[in-house]
Amino acid sequence: MLNSQTSTPAPASALGGSRYLDIIDQPFYNLLVELQDLVSYETACFWRARNVRSVHLPVTTGSISSPMGLGSDSLPVRIDLFDVPVYLADSMQFLLEYGCRLTPSGCYYLMPSFRGEDADATHLSQFFHSEAEIPGTLDDVVATADAYVRHLASAVVSDLGDVLRRTGAGTDHLEAFLGSPTTRMTFEGALDALGGDPESFTFHDSWRTITRHGERQLMEKFGPGVWLSRFDHLSVPFYQATEETTGKALNADLLLGPGEIIGCGQRHTTAEQVRAALAQHQVAEEDYAWYLSMKDYRPQPTSGFGMGVERFLMWVLDHDDIRDLQLVERYNGVVTAP
């Protein structure tokens, strides 16, 4: 049960099948509801001030953003819906790109996403995703995403700071982030800064990725927040555009709190660019035929980002296990009441 000195919840495993009843009396979950409400409200305020429109999208798709190819870091969730194989949304980025053809300033949503991996301390099988797509470049969307996180953090301090200070999480880490610009560095710069540490990076034949340990090292040295950009092209999904001069991906991750909480990138403008990237990433074109047709019909330079809401709240609450940040638990392969 709740520790009497803090607002830390008991581990889910300790509560058994009655968790949904036990947490009713835990102040941590009253605070979690307040934070969820604040994120929803302030997200709408942030985008309304920029004339970016909310779009209502389905939770099923035939065109997943994490196909089984090079650069994919998650597993899709395939279901049979009335004998038709479809996927539950891992992201609706492609439809947000479509939405940018319908509204000039861009569009966003806040909705569930589904992943096929087992949950762990920093991953949920089902989580809330705050995603947006805007006309413009990588620099444009990084600036916008940074402003969005700062908007939310400022609202948390203003509206719920007293509660956080009483619970033990405090607001010092939020105020430290708000009080300084976010560090920006390239992947190559991170390699140099950490001396190519094999614990911080994973090395493949023709591309490299950063580990959780590496993310933590960068935040300790250059944080509290770090924008890490321009990864090896084959380490990110096919839809991320590349920089002509370097061949690096036009992408960036915001490292904050538990690690990456936002991933963003610039998209390919033309269908020809997408086709070349699909071939490089060893992904078949068939499931993305409509996406290619859209790029043929209306080429448009856009960039977008996705923030895991529960990851953001891990940082806000200075909490180390994302599985506690579910009001109602959902795990792959497990039937959970309610």
The radius of gyration over CA amounts to: 20 Å
**Number of domain units:** 1
Number of helices: 10
- Determine the CATH superfamily: Bira Bifunctional Protein, Domain 2
CATH class: Alpha Beta
**What is the CATH architecture assignment?**
2-Layer Sandwich
Low-confidence stretches: 1-6
Percent of residues in helices: 25-40%
Largest sheet, spatial ordering of strands: 1-5-6-13-12-11-10-7
Distance between the termini: 20 Å
Q: Give the structural class.
A: alpha+beta
Largest sheet at a glance? Answer: 8 strands, mixed
Q: What proportion of the residues form beta strands (DSSP E)?
A: 15-25%
Mean pLDDT: 93
Order of helices and strands: HHEEEEHEEHHEHEEHEEEHHEH
CATH topology: BirA Bifunctional Protein, domain 2
Number of strands: 13
Q: Looking at the structure, what is the overall shape?
A: globular
